[in-house]
Amino acid sequence: MITVSKIYRHPIKAHGVEVLSSTPLEIGKCLPMDRHWAVLHEAAKTTGGAWASCANFSRGAKAPHLMAIKAKYDEGTGLLTLRHPDLSEITFDPNTQSAEFINWVTPLMPSDRAASTGITHANGRGITDSEFASVAITNTASNAALSELLGRELSPLRWRSNIWLDNLPAWEEASMVGKTLRIGSAELEIREQITRCRATTANPETGVIDADTLGALKSLGHQQFGVYGVVTKAGTVAITDRAEIL
Fold this sequence. Notes:
Layout lengths: L1 E8 L8 E3 L1 E4 L11 E5 L28 E4 L6 E5 L2 E6 L5 H8 L10 E6 L13 E5 H11 L12 E4 L13 E4 L2 E10 L17 H7 L4 E10 L1 E4 L3 E4 L1
Parallel strand pairs: 9-10
Antiparallel strand pairs: 1-2, 1-10, 1-15, 3-14, 4-8, 5-6, 6-7, 9-13, 11-12, 11-15, 12-13
């Protein structure tokens, strides 16, 4: 039986992961508060306020030390707490305290990359890498298979996924494209596979590049890991919930 083993969200795109035990899913929307904000850089071709491609934002592919940020969002106060092994903890309001956040994160940004300039949002839509509002779904067996290929354990946090599934054969998720996946009381149309970038080469505990994840994937003949789903039936998803390919 396929089951949910982990649930994550990333309140600010590429700037911290948060562990969840359950989450509601709404039709046509991202996982709540996932990639709700993103960080513009000085070479961005957008001023924010709407969805834009990942090239406009500071991200782990260009600044690997960002991968080690952990997050905790307080739904009641609207405050976000971020932690990084090389920095002191910060708690702030992403809507009103962008300058404080930029001062905090600047030491993690490479000097030869476009500097971060401020926090933006997309009017309630998650700023996912996909042009459509998506939920990222990954397979623990595929992560184990890639770990074996590389000869080292890969943290699931490298993949910036939302929902992890157990008891699914390695790489079986690719065959779900075009099908419907029921998870808990929600249903998602699996739209496409996720093509991976250099962010996955960085250790999510240290931010140091230490694994050739892309080389390992390419040795298998592709650069995909996980799939994007679009919510077609609202519901709640929780750890240990059953998942079923319809």
